[in-house]
Amino acid sequence: MGQTEDEPTVGQLVANASRDLSNLVRSEIELAKAELKSTAVAAGTGAGLFGGAVFLALLAVILLSIAAAYGLTALGLHPALSFLIIAVFYLLIAVALILIGRRQLGKAKGPQRAIETSKESVEALKAIGKGD
């Protein structure tokens, strides 16, 4: 079976496939960049608004804490004791959150399946490269 001038050689086919694959990857990267740029402004605005809401909520917690301390004072407690009770209340909440957070961090193992499949892929590629 002779090769005619119109038929590409194996080397040309490999070069064309490599070029096409590079173009495909480059195009996918450009598409991802375009999508990220179009949503970055919306994400930034949303994050800014969320940050503002968190700040205002924190101010509300502070003001409500002061109001609660003055409420305890109005019930007859000494002002220092009222503020101390509120502070201890928040410290108890903080300790509970720390304990829960530490327990949750202990459960975090990382992407075990992704790591395992990545190792398997590397081993498979090494085997192909060796010609096994």
TrEMBL record:
UniProt keyword list: Membrane, Transmembrane, Transmembrane helix
Superkingdom classification of source: Bacteria
Which residues span the membrane?
Answer: 40-68, 80-100
Pfam families the record matches: Phage_holin_3_6
- What name appears for this protein in its UniProt entry? Superfamily III holin-X
Organism taxonomic ancestry: Bacteria, Bacillati, Actinomycetota, Actinomycetes, Propionibacteriales
